[in-house]
Specification:
This protein is an all-alpha fold and 343 residues long. It has helices spanning 15-30, 38-57, 66-81, 87-99, 102-114, 121-140, 144-157, 162-175, 178-188, 196-208, 210-224, 228-241, 246-258, 262-275, 280-300. Among the domains are: 38-118, Serine Threonine Protein Phosphatase 5, Tetratricopeptide repeat; 119-208, Serine Threonine Protein Phosphatase 5, Tetratricopeptide repeat; 233-298, Tetratricopeptide repeat domain (Serine Threonine Protein Phosphatase 5, Tetratricopeptide repeat). Mean pLDDT is 87; it is low at 7-17. It has 15 helices and no strands.
Length: 343
């Protein structure tokens, strides 16, 4: 279902304003009928008189009131008497508009233009009003093609009416013509800031598809409400339809970290870096994960073994001891022998 249209108070004039516009038109028509066939001119004067009486008699106007029915019948006679003249169509367009018969009013304005009627400021404004109201009705019933067609016509007739441009932007958004919706909504957002959410949705939809855009916007609302778990689910849903949705990746990774789902967060940051290599948040997060991995690896590693003592160097052969030099053996000194005795 399309979202409700913003209906700006004052876009459609009050009945008294419409009635005043018709009264002015009646006076101008009375003097602007050169060359109108006599029968048509007479019938149109009757229609004008009945309309003037209706404006004076009724506080509110509808097409079933006797004086208005009389005015319509006379104007139809004028139209049949002069089928290619614009004057009867202008009268019918404004009379139908005054009584709320908008579809007939729009048809009459189109005939008026087709047969060469001058679209002065009043005519353009009233025709745009009829097209806008019909476009809104078409939008409300889901007929987006008719809504866009009618609102486009209204915007062409009254290009300064930013409310019409805003309605057209929303109708294009509902139709799925996102590029056109962005163009129209961007034209009015400075003057009508209330359309900014529509513009954001149209821009995101143009980049990533409406399903992903809607899931992302829903996730933002949930996040603001404090429901981080469901918000993460909706960010993940946005990524299913648009894997390159960088801000959805960033927000999903942040929430996954907050919820303690580190492996999922790491995976999401890695995906983001693949699309945005210089993303500072992603690169910082991945660097932190790498540092943590290194610390965990160091903590889990077994202690290094005690160092093995170096082997003793091989014993060097000792030189054989030098035998001592022989020392001369001291010879005992000869003892004097006693002289032999003589026998």
């Amino acid at each position: 279902m399309p979202e409700p249209l913003m209906w700006v108070v004052g876009m459609l004039p009050r009945p008294r304003t419409v009635a005043l516009a018709l009264a002015i038109a009646l006076s101008s028509l009375a003097s602007a009928q050169p060359g109108l066939p006599t029968e048509a001119a007479e019938a149109l004067r009757e229609a004008q008189a009945a309309a003037a009486a209706a404006l004076a008699a009724y506080d509110a106007h509808n097409p079933d009131q006797p004086l208005w029915r009389e005015a319509f019948a006379a104007a139809e006679r004028a139209r049949r008497a002069a089928p290619t003249r614009p004057e009867p169509f202008r009268f019918l367009a404004q009379a139908y508009g005054t009584t709320g018969w908008t579809a007939r009013a729009w048809e009459a304005w189109q005939e008026y233009r087709f047969w060469g009627g001058t679209m002065d400021a009043s005519a353009r404004r009233d025709a745009a009003r009829a097209a806008t109201e019909l476009g809104y009705q078409a939008y409300s019933t889901g007929d987006q093609a008719s809504a866009v067609r009618l609102l486009t016509a209204a915007a062409e007739l009254d290009p300064a009416n930013l409310e019409v441009v805003a309605l057209l932007g929303q109708a294009e958004l509902a139709r799925g013509n996102l590029a056109a919706a962005v163009v129209y909504l961007r034209r009015v957002v400075a003057t009508m800031p209330e359309v900014e959410p529509l513009l954001i949705r149209a821009q995101l939809g143009a980049n990533y598809g409406l399903a992903a855009a809607d899931a992302y916007l829903e996730a933002l609302e949930l996040l603001e409400a404090g429901d981080t778990v469901t918000a993460l689910e909706r960010f993940e849903a946005a990524l299913e339809g648009a894997p390159n949705f960088s801000d959805a990746l960033r927000r999903a990774a942040t929430l996954a970290e907050r919820l303690g789902r580190d492996e999922r967060a790491r995976e999401l940051w890695t995906r983001l870096v693949a699309f945005v290599p210089q993303d500072p948040q992603a690169t910082a997060a991945l660097a932190a994960y790498a540092e943590r991995d290194a610390e965990e690896a160091r903590a889990a590693a077994p202690p290094p073994p005690a160092p093995t003592p170096a082997p003793a160097p091989p014993a060097q052969p000792q030189p054989a001891p030098t035998p001592p030099e022989p020392q001369p053996v001291p010879q005992p000194e000869p003892q004097p022998q006693p002289a032999p005795t003589e026998p």
